[in-house]
């Protein structure tokens, strides 16, 4: 994790930015590409977005994007912004590692969540996290149509997980609309 990008009303992280290169899984040495730049961490929001995905919403939204050139252009711009920020997060050593791993193209050119065919949506969680962090089109649609909500005081699970809330939200974190 690089930093917290958005927090809930209780101060817990809802979105974190993730390094484009992360330690290899399985205890192997070195780094591997991780194309998901923004990660949705709030368990309540994750559950709600999972239900939307399970309902087939990804396919329906892809159909809408395919039929609406203005919407398609907005989603394409989001993919480009996401890729530019992810690739820009690589320092010179990271660029070298990505090139050696054959991953620089993926980190430079793939869209939200690492999707390669930019006409498609890989994951609504990634789109919603991008929206909370940077105001994305698909996440905005989710907000408008489905109004995913943060937890109520009785539902706060992050306190049980050991995650610490922020005493004060740092100024560099964009406020939630």
Please sum up the structure shown.
The chain contains 8 helices and 5 strands; from the N terminus they run βββββαααααααα. The protein has helices spanning 43-54, 57-67, 69-88, 92-100, 104-109, 124-134, 137-146, 158-161; strands at residues 3-7, 13-17, 21-23, 31-33, 38-40.
How would you explain this protein's 3D organization?
With 177 residues, the chain is mainly α. It has one domain (3-161). The protein contains eight helices and five strands, in the order E-E-E-E-E-H-H-H-H-H-H-H-H. It has a three-stranded antiparallel sheet with strand order 1-2-5. A hairpin with a 7-residue loop joins strand 3 (21-23) and strand 4 (31-33). Helix 2 (57-67) packs across helix 3 (69-88) and helix 6 (124-134) crosses helix 7. It is globular, with a radius of gyration of 17 Å.
What's the helical proportion of residues? 40-55%
Helix/sheet category:
mainly alpha
**SSE order in H/E notation?**
EEEEEHHHHHHHH
Whole-number total of structural domains: 1
How many angstroms separate the termini? 24 Å
Content of β-strand: 5-15%
Given as residue ranges, the uncertain stretches (5+ residues, pLDDT < 50) are 168-177
Tally of helical runs: 8
User: What is the radius of gyration computed over CA atoms, rounded to a whole number of angstroms?
Assistant: 17 Å
Total beta strand runs: 5
- Principal-axes shape call: globular
How would you characterize the largest beta sheet? Answer: 3 strands, antiparallel
What spatial order of strands do you see in the largest sheet?
A: 1-2-5
On the 0-100 scale, what is the average pLDDT? 89
């Amino acid at each position: 994790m690089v930093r917290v990008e958005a927090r809930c009303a209780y101060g817990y992280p809802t979105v974190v930015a993730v390094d484009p290169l992360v330690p290899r899984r399985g205890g192997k040495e070195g780094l591997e590409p991780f194309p998901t730049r923004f990660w949705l961490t709030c368990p309540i929001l994750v559950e709600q977005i999972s239900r939307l995905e399970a309902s087939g919403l990804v396919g329906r939204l892809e159909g809408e994007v395919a039929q609406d050139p203005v919407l398609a252009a907005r989603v394409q711009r989001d993919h480009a912004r996401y890729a530019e920020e992810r690739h820009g997060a690589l320092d010179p050593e990271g660029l070298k590692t990505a090139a050696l791993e054959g991953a620089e193209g993926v980190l430079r050119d793939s869209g939200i969540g690492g999707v390669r065919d930019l006409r498609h949506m890989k994951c609504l969680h990634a789109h919603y996290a991008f929206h909370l962090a940077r105001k994305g089109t698909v996440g905005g649609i989710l907000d408008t149509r489905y109004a995913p909500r943060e937890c109520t005081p009785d539902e706060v699970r992050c306190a049980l997980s050991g995650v610490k809330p922020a005493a004060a939200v740092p100024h560099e974190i964009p406020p939630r609309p």
